[in-house]
Amino acid sequence: MQPKRRTAILISGRGSNMEALVAAAAAADYPAEIVLVLSNRPDAGGLATAAAHGIATRAIDHRPFGGDRAAHEAAVDAALRAAGVEIVCLAGYLRLLSPFLVGRWAGRMLNIHPSLLPAYKGLHTHERVLAAGETRHGCTVHLVNEDLDSGPILAQAEVPVLPGDTPETLAARVLTEEHRLYPEALREVASGPLPRVGGPV
Ligand code: GRF
Fold first, then answer.
1. Mean of per-residue pLDDT scores for the chain
2. Are 194 and 87 in contact (CB under 8 A)?
3. Distance from residue 94's CA to the centre of ligand 1 (Å)
4. Which one of 53, 62, 72, 113 is the catalytic residue?
5. By C-alpha distance, which of 172, 140, 163 is closest to 153?
6. Residue ranges lining ligand 1, Cβ < 6 Å
7. Which residue CA neighbors atom 12 of ligand 1 most closely?
8. Of 17, 88, 128, which is best to mutate to test ligand 1, by the most ligand atoms within 8 angstroms of its C-beta?
9. Which of 9, 55, 120, 185 is the most buried (most CB within 10 A)?
10. Are 89 and 182 in contact (CB under 8 A)?
């Protein structure tokens, strides 16, 4: 068996998808290990959860960087490299990424999005799905490219929209699928060959 792929998870909030990945990675035969959970928000609830699982955590607050997105991303990238990270999973990481970071991790950076992409890119997907009267909804794991929620799709799961659904009930139904789907998608990526990490090392 090849060595487990060293994987970082980037979060901004509660980190329930992070926890699902951590739980999956605890299995002996899982091809990835979670070596770092990093947040741009020092108060992200998921940081404490990760620490409780014995995982290294880092907070790199974007606010002291002012509007200097490149400098913040350079600090994030340095932390990833220092930890020997091979794969990056975005899990509720609420920062738009510049071509710099996306390019560095091309083919090695995954994201989970709560919609059946390419439908409903961006925020507030559950509200928008309900407002449009859709009958089906779901979640997507995709590779990250330079355009928001637009990279190659790796896996999708569908749920029904039920009569009487609120954004909260719908979000909960989708989230259950997210927690199943993301570990599956990471398993696939971590099991295969990876492109070389871009940019000067
Ligand atoms: C999830 O719905 C995910 O699809 C979206 O942000 C939410 C993060 O939730 N990108 P959590 O922090 O993983 O609980």
1. 96
2. yes
3. 9
4. 113
5. 140
6. 11, 13-18, 91-92, 112-114, 139, 175, 178
7. 15
8. 17
9. 9
10. yes
Classify residue 199 by its DSSP letter.
Answer: S
The fraction of the chain above a pLDDT of 70, given in percent, is: 99
Quick: pLDDT tens for 57-103: 999 999 999 999 999 999 999 999 999 999 999 999 999 999 999 99
**pLDDT score for 198:** 73
Residue 5 corresponds to which tokens in the numbers above? 């792929």
Ligand 1 center from residue 38 Cα (angstroms): 15
- Which residue has 């070389």 as its token pair? 196
Phi, psi of 198 (to 5 degrees): -75, 165
- The token pair at 125 is 């997907």
Which amino acid is located at 131 in the chain?
A
